[in-house]
Amino acid sequence: MKNNYEKCKNLNGRHILIESGGGVGDLIMFTPALRRLKELYPSCILTFLTIDKTVDVINRIPYIDKVICIKRGRFMGRYRVVPELLKQDYFVFTEWQPQLLFCAWLLHLPNRFSVPRLGNPLTKTLHKYITDIVSKDVGFAAKTNARLISKALDIHLDGDMTHCDVSMPNKEEQKEVDLLLQNIGIHKNDDFIALSPFTSAEGRDWPLSEAKKLVQMIQEKYQLPVVLIGNKDKDVSKVSKYSLLKKTSIIQLIEVIRRSKCLVSPDSGPVHIAGALNVPCVALFSRDLPSRWAPKYNCYPIYLHYDCSPCESETFNNCPYQLKCIRNITAEMVMETLKLIL
């Protein structure tokens, strides 16, 4: 080990930076380990580094002392966080960040831990390799993250890792959601179901033809409005007359999900928000495993268990099976699962 690597004994008073540039669900899955870290070492200074797209998901969680973000698309975006690096005693990069790793090495910063890249010279600058990777483990992602942080910092994060957290809206943001819902015909105390058919990857989107059938079936059986949510600009006028697509910030989206009677969504950020809020959720799994990503409470996953699932990104992006893992999940399957909730 390099001479500026320090084996952890007591992290109280120490500055710890943990990085993840993943999506909403990835960040939420770190919260049980971060909460336990702060419980064990209450005077440690915990900083989380992520990207600007997802920062609002965790930046109000009280046990995280500071959340800093990389502003993607901005000139020298990654290098703008270097002043924050200078304050840290430990660096846990859960993803490969070559620019920041180079800066940390150049500045002789201590205790640099990251995922190795074989053949890349920056790998040799690390004090410890991170080998516990969520995508390589079939177990619950939050538990894998706890093990990752434990091994990186030479500590033991014990206890329950199944309860996740998320930023909570304030009263002003709740009033904003009152107005958003009112504008589409949903009053403050009305029950509704939230439906998020879209994800960050088009291949994981649930077909709108099935979404339309589901909305019709819900209206016929339960007489409940179905509010479409998400961040894609799609014409859903034939699916539901209640749409908040592209109309909510992340914080407002959290509040809409919090108010919903239940959520229906492919495995994506809204599922993990619902899990953190203990809102019932029907989660549609395609290329990944429920054992890894499905919230442990009030979640009802639908997974077709094809031999080709789970799959790697390269296979998924060039799927020889026409994405049957998501496209073959029908509205009837979702309705059968909704019976368990409604």
What key phrases describe this protein's structure?
342 residues, alpha/beta, Rossmann fold, six-stranded parallel β-sheet, five-stranded parallel β-sheet
What does this structure look like?
- With 342 residues, this protein is α/β, with parallel strands linked by helices.
- It has 2 domains: 15-153, Glycogen Phosphorylase B (Rossmann fold, 3-Layer(aba) Sandwich), CATH 3.40.50.2000; 171-341, Rossmann fold (3-Layer(aba) Sandwich), CATH 3.40.50.
- The protein contains 13 helices and 11 strands.
- The protein has helices at residues 24-28, 31-40, 82-85, 98-106, 141-153, 171-183, 208-222, 250-259, 269-277, 290-293, 313-317, 324-327, 331-341, and strands at 15-19, 45-51, 66-70, 90-93, 112-114, 128-129, 193-195, 226-228, 262-266, 281-285, 299-303.
- A 6-stranded parallel beta sheet has the order 3-2-1-4-5-6, sandwiched between helices.
- Helix 2 (31-40) packs across helix 5 (141-153).
- 43% of the residues are buried.
